[in-house]
Amino acid sequence: MDTARLSRFVSGLWDDEIVPQLVEYIRIPNKSPMFDKDWVAHGYMDAAVKLMETWARSKLSQLPGATLEVVRLEGRTPLIYIEVPGQGDDTVMLYGHLDKQPEMTGWADGLGPWTPVLKGDKLYGRGGADDGYAIFGSLAALLALHEQGIPHARCVVMIEACEESGSYDLPFYVDHLAARIGSPSLVVCLDSGCGNYDQLWLTTSLRGMTGGNLSVQVLEEGVHSGDASGVVPSSFRILRELLSRLEDPATGQIKPKELYVEIPAQRVEQAKLSAEVLGADIYDKFPWVEGMQPVTHDLAELVLNRTWRPQLAVTGIGGIPPLESAGNVLRPQTSVKLSLRVPPTLNGAKAGEFVKQLLEKDPPYGAKVSFTLEKDGSGWNAPALSPWLEQAVSDASQNYFGAPATYMGEGGSIPFMGMLGEKFPKAQFLITGVLGPHSNAHGPNEFLHIPTGKKVSMVVAEVVARHHQQGSKA
């Protein structure tokens, strides 16, 4: 393989075609079904699928025998399915998603979720890095191999449209396409993060996730606070008390031991190494207000907190009027949306049921308390890397980043990984991504770091080629 030639090819393809395609993709407000119940009627998801489908089809002639189908199961989000023939009996699966998180507030002047803006090496807008680039990066890698006549195994590309809602449609597609997919021996996922933009980061684990809507009701309607306060318990105070069953309000630590697992020794050591590489960048990447501090200055503990320990975030609130509309009223109810990250090896469904029982039992003062589960995705812990993959990753990181590969867990979830780990227990996994410092996926000012997108595409090409070489030697 001529790595310099491969670099030129991939970089040129990104500059000439992929970045312009991502600019148009960012304009499409194709929010995931959880955030757009009328996604079918709005047609934005179909527009995003069409954009990617059109570009991908324009490249199939450069991948002899390749086929593309937009698979649509009744009542479910669509899925783009591409097969690229290869040599040997092995299969490589390359995965990504095209649905997006909602707008979020706080975008800087001139930026917005559906307003693509190029500033230097960064492309701002929702979904470019999470995870619109995946189909383009995956095909760029395969096109680069064909440009040099380098053999690879049969490749299957799957791009779903439900990941940000928990991938609840994906199992049906995996079952529907099972005979066509086969048994991948290598799975490539480009939907993860990176600790910095200086080297390749391999994701070793992903936390699971559960959560839903917690509601506390004390009255049928609001009443004068001067009349009721001191007589009617505040729904907000009761809600605080309930949350304290789950989370220590002073430290943020999750209280129930049932939501913890024993952290594998290797992951502890990898966390320490990641902390040495990143230093204060572990927390400096966040947009702190002046004077704020992280929960601890033990860097390795911060890594473990965000990768292997349960943590709670309140991501939405209901029943509370905006400040300018708030009168002297004791409100009838308060609701919050809870997002609980759980350890990679904890069962997400069981964790959700545990939390529901914890919050609903023995409601204070007899208040009407309900916790409606919305999410129950389990996490994932990577199998040990085969020697060939470990060496391939190391070489590719040096070839395209000029620095060693680094290994770290991620705090977010990719539900598909846990599913694949169960279905293909012998598969090797290359999980990486472009979501590095300040890229702010799901939040305001999200951006794609274009040089990292290019280099990740190059790494995928080399690893897929080495995968075939390894199979040929077997």
Automatic annotation (TrEMBL):
Keywords: Hydrolase, Metal-binding, Protease. InterPro entries: Cyt/Met_Dipeptidase, Peptidase_M20, Peptidase_M20_dimer. It comes from Rhodanobacter soli. It comes from the Bacteria. Signal peptide: none annotated. This is Acetylornithine deacetylase/succinyl-diaminopimelate desuccinylase-like protein. Residues 205-363 form the Peptidase M20 dimerisation domain.
